[in-house]
Every structure is written in C-alpha cells, then in structure tokens.
Amino acid sequence: MQLELFDKLDYGSVELEEVFRAYYDCRKNKRRTINALAFEADFEDNLIELWKDINSRAYSPGKSIAFIVTEPVQREVFAADFRDRIVHHLIINKLNHLFEQQFIVDSYSCREGKGTQFGIKRIAEFVRQCSVNYTQDCYILKMDIQSFFMSIDKKILFHKLREFVLAQYLEQDKFLLVELIYKVIFNNPENNCFIKGKKSDWHGLPKSKSLFFVPKDKGLPIGNLTSQIFANFYLNFFDKFVTEVCGVKYYGRYVDDFVIIHQDKKFLIALIEKLKKFMKTELNLTLHPKKIYLQHYSKGVKFIGAVIKPNREYIGNRTKGKFYAKIMQLNKEIEHNSKPTAEFIGQAVASINSYLGFMVHYKTFKIRNRLLRQLLDEKWLKYLKIDEHCRKVSLKTAYTPKVKAISKLKHKKKRRKKFMKSPKLVDSLMGG
Fold first, then answer.
1. How far apart (Å, rounded) are the C-alpha atoms in residues 264 and 297?
2. pLDDT at position 85, please?
3. Fewer CB atoms inside 10 A, N or C side of the chain?
C-alpha cells in the first residue's frame, strides 16, 4: 500500500523536547539491553539525529530482533531497535489520551488503571449483577479471535487510524504523525531482523502465529508498544458494536478474549453469528470456531488466568502448572551453571515475581509456599531470599547490583592503594 501524500500541505514538525520525553519513557525498562546501552553512549547526539530524521521525513525503521518466548504460551516476538522504540513512544504519547477518550471502560489490556485484576473483578461483578446476587439465571459467553495479532489487516488499521488522527488530533504535525504511523504499521520486521536463539525454537509454533508466514499486509509484531495500543484501537470498533449496536450491558475484553453475560441464553446464541459477521466484514478477523464457551453462570468462567465463580475467584490450574514448570526449569538451569550471570539471576527473580504478583490477589498462600519450597537447590538459596508471606523473592543484599558495584569499586581502590605503596613503584616515581 502506498501512502497517500498530502500534497502542498505543511507536514509540521516534532519538537525536540517530545523526542527526549519519548526517550525517557522508552528507557525506563530497557536500559540494560545492548541496543539501549549503545544508544545511550551518545544519547544526546543520537536523539538530535533522530529528531532531524523525523522532521525531514527521512526516518525509516531499523532491524528488529526475533525470538521465541514460551510463557505463558509459545509466541513469536519481534523486539524493535531502541531507536524505533523511541518513535513508538513518541506516537503513543501524542495519541493515547485521545484513544482513552474513545475506549470503553471494559477493555482491560495495556491501559493505566486497568489490567488483569481490574478485569477479573469487573467480570465477577457483572455476573453478580446480571444474576441479581445469584438468585436468577444468567449465562456467560466467552470467545476469542483466531491468531489475532497475525490476522490484523494493516490496510484497515491504517485507514481507521488515519481518519482518527485527521479528525481528532489538532496539532500542527498531524500529517507528519500520519506518515510515522504508516511507516510503523507497514514495516515488515520479518524481512529485516536478527534471529536470537535457534531456528528450532520455532518448532511447534503454527504458521498462522508467525509473521514469517502471514499473507501480505497482515499482522503486527508482538513486542512493540504500538502493536499493543493499535490492537486496542482496532478492536474498539468491535467493543462499540457489542455495547452500543447490540445493546450488551455486561461485556469485557482483554486483548482478544472477551466475555458477555446475559440473562437470556437464546439472545447469546443468536448474538454469536452477529459477532462473527461484524468481525469478518468490518475488521477482516475470524472468531475462533473451537473456542466458544457458553454456560450457566454457576459453572464459572476462566478469564485472564483466573476462574470466576459465584462469590469467589481463584487461580487457574494452568497458571499453577506453568509456575511449577518454571521453577523446575530454573532449578535445572542453575544446576548446570556454576557461575550464573547477574542478568540470568535477575531474569529468574523477575519471572518468579511475575507469577507471585498475580497469585497474591487470591487465597493462594499454601500454593505459593508449596511451589517456592521447590527452590531448594543450594545455589538458588545462595542468591535469593523469600518473603515470609511468600509474596515475592528478592536478591540477597550481597548480590544486588548496587552492592556489587560498590564492592567492585572498593576492590579497585584497594588494589590501586596497594599498588601505590609498592617499593618498586615509589623508586620509579622518585627516579630511583
């Protein structure tokens, strides 16, 4: 698709301050990556160069890093170059407040103040309200979208974003912003990437879930901020159709999973075909034919890693199983790693705490305690300490980056002092 140029119009310009702000937002969680460190080595000059490229319309995306993650499920991830991530933050900083004005309350992904716990509590409250405090019948319909990120139609997405920006974004750089959006959406990272890991990592991943096999002008890379926010924007049209056109009161969505609660089971059965038709004709997406759940509210529903039942929510077996598998994997890895790096230990702590951070919202102390007791390898206990309430693990003080850095500095000073006291050095300095 060729970008329709805005002939004879001023594209405007981005302020240097905006680029710096996007940089500071971008580096919050990415300062230790190789790309980030390379960029920061001379970040002021690099930002000025990026600012000039954007305003001269010479900017183009660089190489991404492609790799596979296995948690919570096997996925293909494309990590954009740090320079490109700054551009992503720049775009979202300009548009996100406008998106928020359009989004419904009950889309829960990648939104400040929302998230998994908010979504779970909302759906639980919807069930309670619809069933009139569990005294009347109501039914839960849960569905998801087949290969969602890989199926997003870039042409439809760009067309809708272009219309939105031209109508809602009133700053002087709107045409330049549209061009940046175009470059981000129609960038094909699979054609310009480094492969991190082994090709065998892709074994078991369906072709429908990989950018390397999607049709032309389809799919957004998982791993980019713009992909996450643009995906919310894309499905906001579906959210509005369900809540405004179909008149559904109790509805919630997390990424491509959505739940509808209604007192009339026949209404939900008839609704399925309407939803399928809208998805296909308006967004060129397909609802997964094998993932349609329709049950009485008393049966409960699995949503965002939790099971929601009358008067209670608890953690799903899949989440517990994944956590156990992760601990076993970490035990196996450290058993064969005599000198684990700080990065490896840090990643282990982050992974364990991500599970614990989700589980602490439920009555899971016994489960957490039992699972954390599996970290019995002496090597792990050397580095980690476990909170007495099993809410988190942390590095022992001696192994925190700050203490290690101070210890290393003191060691260097001690060596330097010892070296300066050497008789041979004194004689050489004194000309002896």
1. 12
2. 95
3. C
391 CB contacts (<8 Å, ≥6 apart)? 356, 360, 368
Q: Position 236: which residue type?
A: N
Please list, residue by residue across 408-427, b when 16 or more beta carbons sit within 10 angstroms of its beta carbon and e when fewer do: eeeeeeeeeeeeeeeeeeee
Strand partners, 286: none
Within the chain, what is the greatest distance between any pair of CA atoms? 101
The three-class DSSP label of residue 69 is strand
Cα–Cα distance list, 345 to 371, 385, 393 (Å):
18, 12, 11
Rg (CA), the chain: 26
Tell me the DSSP string of 232-301: HHHHHHHHHIIIIIS--SEEEEETTEEEEEES-HHHHHHHHHHHHHHHHHHH---B-TT--EEEEGGG-E
270 with 242: CB under 8 angstroms? no
**Burial call 162-192: b when 16+ CB within 10 Å, e when fewer:** bebbeeeeeeebbbbbbbbbbbbbbbbbbee
Q: Which pLDDT tens digit goes with each residue over 104-124?
A: 999 999 898 888 889 999 999
- Residue 68: strand, helix, or coil: strand
Other Cβ atoms within 10 Å of 245 Cβ, number: 10
Q: For 27-42, what is each residue's pLDDT tens digit? A: 886 656 677 777 877 8
